[in-house]
Design brief:
The structure is a homodimer of 365-residue chains. The first copy, chain A, is of the alpha/beta class and 365 residues long. Chain A has helices at residues 20-28, 48-65, 79-91, 105-114, 230-235, 245-260, 263-284, 312-321, 346-363; strands at residues 9-10, 71-76, 97-102, 119-124, 126-129, 132-135, 150-152, 155-156, 161-162, 173-176, 193-197, 208-213, 288-289, 301-306, 324-325, 336-339. Chains A and B meet through α1, α3 and α6 of A and α1, α3 and α6 of B.
């Protein structure tokens, strides 16, 4: 086995870096878990050993997000993309319409999938403000009264846009929180459904957390595929089919790590500090630019462009040589993107800024 | 970390034991894969590093099963249960009916889910033969000419029943091979669709391999949830959404391990030898019984009953103390079940027979 002679910081947008402590524990007990002589992934999901893992993970997540007791927590498969279908299939009831707030790539993708099942009332919330990308305040979103629910994506991973307020509506609010869950405090009781692919702040790819207000389970239609049926999943405690046990276990380790850091309130402070270090540097620099208005800048995903795009490949190569990994922007946007999820330590952001500063000096003139 | 002072053999029906060599490699490179300083689960599924993993896994599986080039290999989520919906949703086309061969729990479960989407022509294939559970020969299965396809489950994990022949039909044959894939040679070209949850002979729970004949992709309906749409998954090379990268990678290691063992032909011989050691001992004993006719005995799942069911708990406890784990039968059947998938070495079966023999001596009288 090779030694790591350098510190590596992983800015991947997802599957993203996971907390080192959780990964080390998972590695140490990988083939001999609880001294059983087996891996956690080699036992029945219905064994008492695994049931304890499952229950603790659920309780820890409930504690971390203060999830009220009238909400079910489902550990699903198929990622957030499966939820793009599951949401309308579960929530429409007798209604034929839903409102989708469009503020970026993922919100649009969710609306496109939902369109198979109902009319979509789209509210275009993305605007320019002072020449920068911005989002209309949620209190001004127009939500058609015929809609069964309103869907939005509070953090657009690709665009680096974050929405910080909630609409005033009596419709269930549904949020794709894949890249924002656990990064900042939220009031779960304001939502009907929250879902989040794990591969950013929860655990490895292959599991998706869905939090559903109990009363909404009654809307589910028995004709929809069971694997997407919230009521079935709730009744079977997310074990309607064999769940992705290792991903569930590893997510549980991440929840325990987060509790140790002081929980969501504490990590939010660190996340805000990390984000401001990076945005402050970008704003002061003439070499880098972020095109999101300050009110809607994501604290998780920081896209930025180089003044000289012809240097993009050089930037990525030299960054990677310095142990700053996976900084390439999404192919639809180009440029760079630093994803600074919970597991990214403040040192990682400082190292990135240090590198950006040197790179700027070298190539500005 | 505790030392393992004994050899443990894992008879779990699934999630099942994985090959030790694959597990050890995964552990060794768990936090520093390819000397990147990152885990394979911490990088983008679209990075060249992961794409190589994905492509190699697909090619290795193609080699192992001799999958013809006009078949797509899809790495899906949601387990075989998701395929219970996906199969009718993808294959019905304009047809309104499918034939399901019922020979056990899983075949019945597949039919129940499909019934949401079409009429089900059920052929009850389970019979008694010499007082034992058996299955009508496939050439005698009646398949209604209005059916879009015929579905069966060649190995019933719970009942310990295996079907060794194929129906003569011009309809696409669809097989749930979750607990038989890679255990014995098959002729893929005879099937329309083969699917298999990974957690027996492929890898960890959370991934499901679906092998689809190309021409059937054209039947898929754009209204079905994209995550279940074979055509979408094929076009996106199983990356329509973020795939379960770690499960995919680990499955790839298992494929490489199997190639090293000599492939499916070689492992089939070992599997048959393992099964016959166990069945022979059970048949000779007056203390244990297997209730499946010799023609349909599974080489993967061997359920057996004790002559004195009141000793079940004692048997399980003492077995576990001897390092023979997860022998409890499915709750719907009771008794014991030894699952002896590819990763179970012949020594494990011999150790089990040795223990059964001692237990019999102790408690027979």
């Amino acid at each position: 086995m090779g030694l790591i002679l350098r510190n590596v910081f992983n800015f991947s947008a997802g599957p993203a870096g996971l907390p080192k402590a959780a990964m080390k524990q998972a590695q140490a007990e990988f083939v001999n878990w609880k001294n059983l002589g087996l891996s956690v992934m080699e036992i029945s999901h219905r064994s008492r050993f695994f049931l304890q893992v499952a229950e603790e993970a659920e309780q820890d997540l409930r504690d971390l997000l203060n999830i009220p007791s009238d909400y079910e927590i489902l550990f699903c498969q198929g990622g957030a993309r499966a939820q793009f279908s599951a949401v309308p299939l579960n929530l429409l009831g007798n209604s034929k319409q839903a409102t989708y707030i469009d503020a970026g790539y993922w919100a649009k993708s969710a609306a496109k999938e939902a369109k198979k099942y109902c009319d979509i009332d789209i509210f275009k919330a993305k605007i320019k403000k002072g020449g920068k990308n911005s989002v209309i305040l949620a209190k001004e979103w127009k939500i058609d009264s015929n809609s069964a629910y309103v869907h939005f994506c509070p953090n657009e991973t690709i665009d680096g846009i974050e929405i910080n307020d909630l609409p005033q509506t009596d419709k269930p609010i549904v949020a794709d929180m894949s890249s924002t869950i656990l990064s900042r405090e939220i009031d779960v009781s304001k939502y009907g459904v929250i879902y989040a692919g794990a591969q950013k702040n929860i655990g490895p790819a292959g599991i998706c957390v869905t939090i559903v207000r109990n009363d909404l389970l009654e809307l589910s239609n028995s004709l929809l595929p069971s694997i997407l049926n919230y009521k079935v999943l709730a009744e079977k405690k997310s074990m309607f089919n064999t769940p992705p046990t290792f991903a569930w276990y590893l997510s549980g380790l991440v929840f325990k790590w987060l509790k140790k850091q002081g929980g969501v309130k504490a990590i939010e402070q660190i996340n805000r500090e990390k984000a401001s270090i990076l945005y402050n540097y970008i704003d002061e620099s003439k070499f880098y630019e972020n095109n999101v208005h300050v009110e809607n800048r994501s604290i998780m995903n920081v896209p930025f462009q180089l003044a000289k795009p012809e240097l993009n490949i050089k930037f990525l190569m030299q960054a990677s040589e310095s142990g700053l990994m996976e900084l390439k922007g999404h192919r639809s946007v180009g440029g760079m993107r630093a994803s600074i999820y919970n597991s990214m330590p403040i040192e990682g952001v400082k190292a990135l800024v240090g590198f950006m500063c040197e790179f700027e000096k070298k190539y500005l003139t």
